[in-house]
């Protein structure tokens, strides 16, 4: 695997890094306290082409590769996780299902608005009793006179209630089927629900510990009807399709976590050089120096891990295990680096106005989102033939 970025990737990373430092970072605390997704910044990201990075030009995309997306997510998340996850989820959970499994007509209808960043899409998977165990899904979709009638609820759905949200992809039980082993279970399918729609309700946003500006809502579906042709992919393949989407998404999510680890590292290093205690920078203290050295090692391991998974993905090779390794490694690096950075900053590291404090607060969700730590361990173990 070649781990050296070419000039095009380096230029993109530098461009997004500059945008993150000059536009996102200075405004982050203000919109964090307001608990709002800054649509003016999202619009600028759309103008930069970030929401179309890994998609063909024919659908309004930039024609770049998946690594380009990961690099952009990493640089944004370095200064603000909420902005990073808006891009990561907007593409990985919003646009990618339509691109991967949509018909030509569905792609022509939905992709141009989404890849331009003028619109956002959400992926309605998680429910009160179904997330990691998606087969426990209780939302139903019944086919009646050529229309899907959807009833149920979803929780923790990112980008589902913004002013520009135009689509929610919903996983729903569309019937029952018997597996090859003779076991009867729910038939899960994915259905496209353009918004707004009669019977579709975006409930009030959550009072979250962190990610204050990421748009996250519970959703309710009460006899929501959409045409039969809004079925996304093959009927009954919803479970398999969403697993495929999550595998890809975990690579970009690992890039997000790596950005957090990098941001904490940079903040800790800068503070250790300028903070004078007893007549010397605290970085001269061996314990502080070694702590930052470990932060650097964690960040490097996280980045190499997602680079590896991404290279396999782009080469069309199996990458499920490597995606889980990347997500596991990078999320743990982010959490550890956020802890260490906040400790190095002392009391200032416990303030919301400080990026380190926000990373410390926000980073816990990184061990939960897009598959918990335990789910990643389960996947890795299964790929090793240990768990069934």
TrEMBL record:
It holds the Pfam family Acyl-CoA_dh_N. InterPro entries: Acyl-CoA_DH_CS, Acyl-CoA_Oxase/DH_mid-dom, Acyl-CoA_Oxase/DH_mid-dom_sf, AcylCo_DH-like_C, AcylCo_DH/oxidase_C, AcylCoA_DH/ox_N, AcylCoA_DH/ox_N_sf, AcylCoA_DH/oxidase_NM_dom_sf. Residues 236-384 form the Acyl-CoA dehydrogenase/oxidase C-terminal domain. Keywords: FAD, Flavoprotein, Oxidoreductase. The keyword Oxidoreductase applies. Residues 122-224 form the Acyl-CoA oxidase/dehydrogenase middle domain. Its cofactor is FAD. GO terms for molecular function: acyl-CoA dehydrogenase activity; flavin adenine dinucleotide binding. Coiled coil: none annotated. Residues 7-117 form the Acyl-CoA dehydrogenase/oxidase N-terminal domain. It comes from the Bacteria. Signal peptide: none annotated. Belongs to the acyl-CoA dehydrogenase family. This is Acyl-CoA dehydrogenase. It comes from Paramicrobacterium humi.
């Amino acid at each position: 695997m070649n781990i050296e970025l070419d000039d095009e990737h380096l230029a993109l990373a530098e461009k997004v890094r500059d945008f993150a430092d000059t536009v996102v970072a200075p405004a982050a605390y203000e919109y964090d306290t307001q608990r709002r997704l800054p649509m003016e910044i999202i619009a600028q990201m759309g103008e930069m082409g970030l929401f179309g990075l890994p998609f063909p030009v024919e659908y309004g995309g930039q024609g770049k590769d998946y690594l380009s997306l990961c690099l952009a997510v990493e640089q944004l998340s370095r200064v603000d996780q909420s902005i990073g996850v808006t891009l990561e989820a907007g593409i990985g959970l919003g646009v990618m299902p339509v691109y991967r499994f949509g018909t030509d007509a569905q792609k022509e209808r939905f992709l141009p608005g989404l890849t331009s960043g003028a619109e956002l899409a959400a992926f309605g998977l998680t429910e009160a009793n179904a997330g990691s165990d998606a087969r426990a899904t209780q939302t139903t979709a019944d086919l009646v006179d050529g229309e899907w009638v959807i009833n149920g609820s979803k929780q923790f759905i990112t980008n589902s209630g913004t002013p520009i949200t135009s689509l929610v992809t919903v996983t729903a039980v569309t019937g029952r089927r018997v597996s090859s082993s003779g076991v009867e279970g729910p038939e899960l399918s994915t259905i496209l629900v353009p918004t707004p729609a009669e019977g579709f309700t975006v409930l009030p946003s959550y009072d979250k510990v962190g990610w204050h500006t990421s748009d996250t809502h519970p959703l309710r579906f009460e006899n929501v009807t959409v045409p039969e042709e809004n079925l996304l992919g093959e009927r009954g393949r919803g479970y398999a399709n969403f697993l495929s989407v999550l595998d890809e998404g975990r690579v970009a999510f690992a890039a997000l976590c790596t950005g957090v680890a990098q941001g904490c590292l940079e903040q800790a290093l800068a503070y250790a050089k300028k903070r004078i205690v007893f007549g010397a920078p605290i970085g001269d203290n061996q314990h502080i120096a070694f702590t930052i050295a470990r932060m650097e090692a964690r960040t490097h391991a996280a980045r190499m891990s997602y680079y590896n998974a991404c290279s396999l993905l782009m080469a069309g090779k199996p990458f499920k295990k490597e995606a889980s390794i990347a997500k596991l490694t990078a999320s743990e690096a982010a959490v550890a680096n956020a802890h260490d950075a906040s400790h190095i900053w002392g009391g200032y590291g416990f303030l919301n106005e400080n990026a380190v404090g926000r990373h410390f607060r926000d980073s816990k969700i990184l061990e939960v989102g897009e598959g918990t730590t335990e789910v990643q361990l389960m996947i890795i173990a299964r790929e090793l033939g240990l768990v069934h």
